[in-house]
Amino acid sequence: MRKKQLLSSLLFALSVASTAPAAFALGWRLAPQTAVLGQALDFTAALRLDPGDTIDPECVSASVDVGDHRLPRPLVELTVDKRSDALVMHVATREPISEPVASVTLAIGCPTRLSRRFVLLADPPGVALPSVPLVLAAAPVSVPAPTVVAPPVPARAVQAPAVVAPAATRPTPAPHP
């Protein structure tokens, strides 16, 4: 009986592993994001793909939660750009962010789905830092190390040591009674 159970468990594990998608080497690339209270959300993330990985843009979905409520689908726009090495997803809302916490959930895959939730803290209006564009550089760029030049040390005035009078000219202490 024990052998039968072990064999059935092994067959089940092998069948699940064989039906899983071939996208095991997926990795996220995320640009620094900013969310501002009173403005629409503008979010971009990229999913790195290895050669041979295929994901159809139709198999990508996004949802946005603002505070405790989920925005209806018509208020969330998802744009998917399929590149040779990445799947770039851009999520925008048609409604301004009214809560300090917003989260974007991206779900990818057909029929098996991989999902990732990104949490953004919204800045008050007028405080937001400029966002940095998403860069999908393939090769690292070497930058020469900066040359460090020490500033010249200003000449300091050196104080001459105090001159001590010879022992013959020193006053002698009075004897103790």
Outline of this structure?
By secondary structure, this protein is mainly beta.
- Look at the helices and sheets and give the structural class: mainly beta
Ranges where pLDDT stays below 50 over 5 or more residues in a row are 10-25
Label the overall shape: elongated
Biggest sheet overview: 4 strands, antiparallel
Give the termini separation: 113 Å
Radius of gyration: 34 Å
- Mean of all residue-level pLDDT scores: 74
Count, helices:
1
Strand order of the largest sheet: 1-2-6-5
Residue share in β-strands: 25-35%
Order of helices and strands: HEEEEEEEE
Q: What's the total number of strands? A: 8
The percent of residues in helical segments reads 10-25%
Structure description:
The protein has 177 residues and is mainly beta. It has one helix spanning 2-19, and strands at residues 27-30, 40-48, 60-66, 69-70, 76-82, 86-96, 101-108, 114-121. The strands form two sheets. Strands 1-2-6-5 form a four-stranded antiparallel β-sheet, with no helix packed on it. A four-stranded antiparallel β-sheet has the order 4-3-7-8, with no helix packed on it. Strand 5 and strand 6 form a beta hairpin. The chain is elongated and about 110 Å long. The model is unreliable at 10-25 (pLDDT under 50).
Features:
177 residues; 4-stranded antiparallel beta sheet
Question: What's the helix and strand layout?
Answer:
Elements: H1 2-19, E1 27-30, E2 40-48, E3 60-66, E4 69-70, E5 76-82, E6 86-96, E7 101-108, E8 114-121
Antiparallel strand pairs: 1-2, 2-6, 3-4, 3-7, 5-6, 7-8
